[in-house]
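Hi everyone, sorry if this is the wrong subforum. Our group has a chain we'd like a structural model of before ordering constructs, and none of us has done structure prediction before. Sequence below.
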Amino acid sequence: MPINKKDSKILSGIIGIGSYLPQNTLTNYDLERMVDTTDEWIYSRTGIKERRIAGENEFTSTMAVKAAEKAIKMSEISPQKIDLIVFCTITPDYPIPCTAGILAKELGIKNAGGMDINTACSGFIYGISIADTFLKSKKANYVLVVCSDKLSTITDYQDRSSCILFGDGAGAVVMTRTEKFGLLDFKLGLLGDEYEKIVIPAGGSRNPASEKTVKERMHFMKLQGREVFKLAVKYMGQTLKEILERNEITIDMVDWIVPHQANKRITEAICEHFNIPKEKVYDNIEFVGNTSGGSIAIALDEMLEKGLLKNGQLVALAALGAGITYGAALLSWGTT
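Answer:
Right subforum, don't worry. Here is the predicted structure as tokens:
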């Protein structure tokens, strides 16, 4: 919803943020030994040099715990004060139970509601939007939004067009009602007609796991790269433009634009098509790759550690992911 002048003092603010990236790296030179590709080919088409890969004993939940612990510590609240967990992932630890439950156990959270949501690379924007709805309606006081994915488990390392993109990682934020800073507006979208552009064909009720589905590598993500590229440029750009226009904000008023880190060429195309100055866009894809829903939170945490984010700055977010889901959000940044 657009900014309401009467309710401008009631916002959903981020009071804690954290991220986690595994220590193991998979470089373009490593991929040269796995598939028919080169460092130059990968970097020129994606802007990626390396990505992080979780170890055998690291899971979606364990990465989430580390990101969430950092966010909770920064928020200076007890985990017991969290009354809702929104866990964004496409690689849950198990089909059931929800990974939010595993996270609650590991963090010692006893009295919270919780849910997993599957909106892929749009996860962070969807997650903070859900948190905003619960906080504004006073159905929750503190919401933990976590985006974590072990994409290496669904990446086909025989497919050179897609395996070059993805890495593992997690990002988390703690949100509560605030007056001076927070989420100003958001817009969510869904292109159901395009759902087959990003899909894992087997493992669900339509194609249950079988010897055939395993042999045909149907449990790995299938990506129609060129088509997704076009959709990302169009809908991330349009949604960002719409959310600024309806709040009467021009691009020169925005301090930072933090897009989902999907592909550097996508970000560059959005800047070119929608006249966005590149110096306003934060990009860390070169060393982390595409980490799905966690990418925006990971980038924000990195920016904060570098001293780039300052209280009072206006930050715009945009993402597109499987579904096809997409969204944009506008933040008045502040953590105190």
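For your construct planning: Residues 185-332 form a domain with the Peroxisomal Thiolase; Chain A, domain 1 fold (CATH 3.40.47.10). Residues 211 and 217 are 10 Å apart (CA to CA).
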